[in-house]
Design brief:
By secondary structure, the chain is an alpha+beta fold. Strand 5 and strand 6 form a beta hairpin. The longest helix has 17 residues. It is built from 4 helices and 13 strands.
């Protein structure tokens, strides 16, 4: 949940890939299906808080969370609600904008949420909570990259953005090449390479969501135990009223 790319493909399809940078001893469960508020979801679970950093909803939506808002913030010793739980609430929402507008973020740590939904044509959205104000924007359907503000300085973010732009010049962006980017960009730079390792925090997994028609595939790779899995989510057909 600390490096995220999203890239549109043909016919309202897209690929979203995220590297999770976390304390090595924080346990994550590989993706599985869950029912939350009578809605079928697919996500890897953070065992500590029970939430997730990325998930797919049968409501034609993918949600991904990064730590931090626009800039670095000093963490409090504790917060009232996990951002990973908020991700699940947004996955099951009937209407994203209305839910975000009404959602109470009192005592919630700053975050950035990337949302893709395709109920009525593909849309990319960004929701940033800076600790005092909500910011939500619909994004152009083009390639985007985010780096967590809690781990990466503006200078580091700028260099990572350059890596991504340079990669786009030499590669057709698809699921395979984007996975390559998330494994190799900044290779050898343990401090802020896309796979990073600062000892107390490191890249522990890579998760990729690829939507093709009404099928979504979630590919998950644990870098802790060198295990991988791929899970297919066949979504209900959209019926135009």
């Amino acid at each position: 949940m600390c490096t995220v790319t999203i890239v549109p493909q043909n016919n309202n399809d897209f690929v979203l890939t995220t590297n999770r940078d976390e304390a090595p001893d924080r346990i994550s469960l590989e993706p599985d299906f869950y029912n939350h508020v009578n809605t079928k979801l697919l996500f890897p679970k953070d065992k500590t808080a029970g939430g997730t950093w990325i998930g797919v909803s049968e409501k034609q939506r993918v949600v991904c969370v990064l730590n931090g808002g626009f800039e670095f913030h000093e963490r409090k010793s504790s917060y009232g609600k996990s951002r990973g739980v908020i991700a699940k609430d947004i996955m099951v929402a009937d209407a994203v904008y209305e839910t975000i507008s009404d959602y109470s973020l009192a005592d919630v740590e700053p975050f950035t949420m990337v949302i893709a939904e395709w109920n009525n044509g593909l849309k990319f959205m960004e929701w940033v909570w800076d600790g005092s104000q909500k910011h939500i924007a619909q994004l152009p359907l083009e390639a985007h990259i985010w780096s967590s503000s809690t781990l990466y300085s503006p200078k580091m973010k700028a260099e990572r953005l350059k890596w991504f732009r340079d990669f786009k010049l030499d590669h057709q962006l698809n699921a395979e090449s984007l996975l390559q980017f998330h494994k190799t960009a900044g290779d050898g730079n343990a401090d802020y390479g896309v796979i990073m390792n600062r000892g107390f925090v490191k890249t522990t997994s890579i998760t990729q969501v690829e939507k093709i028609g009404q099928t979504v595939e979630m590919h998950y790779e644990s870098l802790q135990n060198n295990a991988s899995s791929s899970t297919i989510f066949n979504l209900p057909q959209i019926v135009n009223e």
